[in-house]
Specification:
About 75% of the residues lie in helices and about 0% in strands. It contains 7 helices and no strands. α1 runs antiparallel to α2.
Length: about 150
């Protein structure tokens, strides 16, 4: 009841302002003001104001608003944690999984893949010998032959 009265008063005041504006020969602005001032009365007549008033004082409606706020808060928290952790998006994780799958060695491959390895690479004896002062260069080839035999080449 109070909402309807307030809406009617706002519309009457708006129409009064539109009349004053039209008196000053600003007809375009007066028409716009009149259009805006008719909106509250139209909302009262269609029942929108009554519906909003019913929802505003409904505990169920406020619980729903609270749940929407909670879900938004949870969503934003997970996004923030995901960005800080550097986990990335689902697309990035799938792309990384596909790249790792491509880099894997097939069981029937004749040569190992040359991807990045986490294990340190062992230096051949000849390279160690050259660094330490030089040794027989014939030991080089026995290491290479052992590696080739190990891989079936």
């Amino acid at each position: 009841m109070i909402a309807e009265t307030i809406c009617s008063a706002v519309s009457a005041a708006g129409l009064g302002i539109a009349a004053i504006t039209a008196y000053r020969k600003r007809f375009l602005a007066a028409t716009r003001i009149a259009a805006y001032s008719l909106v509250p009365v139209a909302l009262v007549m269609t029942g929108v104001v009554q519906w909003l008033a019913d929802k505003a004082f409904s505990p169920t409606a406020w619980v729903g608003v609270g749940l929407l706020g909670l879900s938004w808060l949870l969503f934003m928290t997970t996004r923030m944690v995901e960005r800080r952790a550097g986990v990335g998006t689902r697309k990035e994780r799938k792309a990384a999984a596909r790249a790792a799958q491509r880099d894997a060695v097939a069981p029937t491959a004749s040569a190992p893949s040359l991807g990045a390895s986490t294990a340190p690479v062992a230096q051949p004896k000849a390279a160690k010998a050259k660094k330490s002062g030089g040794a027989d260069s014939g030991d080089d080839f026995s290491d290479v032959e052992a590696i080739l035999k190990k891989h079936g080449i």
